[in-house]
Amino acid sequence: MILEMDCGNSFIKWRVLDGLKVVGGGVVDSGQELVAALLASPLLHITSCRLVSVRSDEETASLITVVSSRFSVAVKCASPAKVMAGVTNGYEHFERLGLDRWLALVGAYELSRRACLVLDLGTAVTADFVARDGQHLGGFICPGLPLMRNQLRTHTRRIRYDTLSAEQALQRNTPGRTTVEAVERGCLMMLRGFVLSQLELAGDYWGEDYEVFLTGGDADLVACAVPDGRLVKDLVFIGLAAACPV
Fold first, then answer.
1. Residues within the annotated binding site for substrate?
2. Residue intervals in the chain for CATH 3.30.420.40
3. How far apart are CA 45 and CA 41, in angstroms?
4. Active-site residues: which are they?
5. For the segment 143-195, what is each residue's pLDDT rounded down to a tens digit?
6. Fold of domain 90-144+186-233
7. Which of 2, 10, 199, 206 could form a disulfide with 17 if both were Cys (CB 3.0 to 4.6 A apart)?
């Protein structure tokens, strides 16, 4: 079984593959929590491991050590590349493109093999454009819903509310009649506006001959604005398989 890890700044997303079937997965804060989760599932027999990490070299090395020593497996770590799986990195300095972002667009092209727009909606929101021939044309980065919300909370003293209130506020799209409704719905409208602007740009490039991929924790919130979008929550893992074949 293959253990796959997507190590972000805040959390580690993981899943286990048995062949092509996902047989386990979750989100943890640390390598120790990951090991505990795997040991709690005795039917998961890890024989190999691959990961992508945007953490520091020291944190990544520590995580690799924890996993490799506990399960006696070699750990493959994705690294920057100019060309991968038919995709050419469009950054002037290819190694500066975030690895998780790079693997997401590689994964999208692996699934599509046509022009595609990749929208990743997490703490930050990214949009990347990949032409039919696999050339990455570049992209955009803007604050995601968590960052927009936290900036308003940090810099506006009277904006204070809890997570449950925020979730309830997003159940409707009418103008807010409380601060939490106004903030949450306003931020969501900005997010959807960003998505619509990317669709417009993709249309300028390719007309209707392209595919839209949605990924990231807040992808569901903008899906209504992209009725033909393809929601693939594990897009980074698809790119990771191309980067680190077992």
1. 91, 98-101, 179
2. 2-77, 90-144+186-233
3. 9
4. 100
5. 988 888 777 766 666 666 666 777 777 778 788 788 888 888 888 999 999 99
6. Nucleotidyltransferase; domain 5 (3.30.420)
7. 2
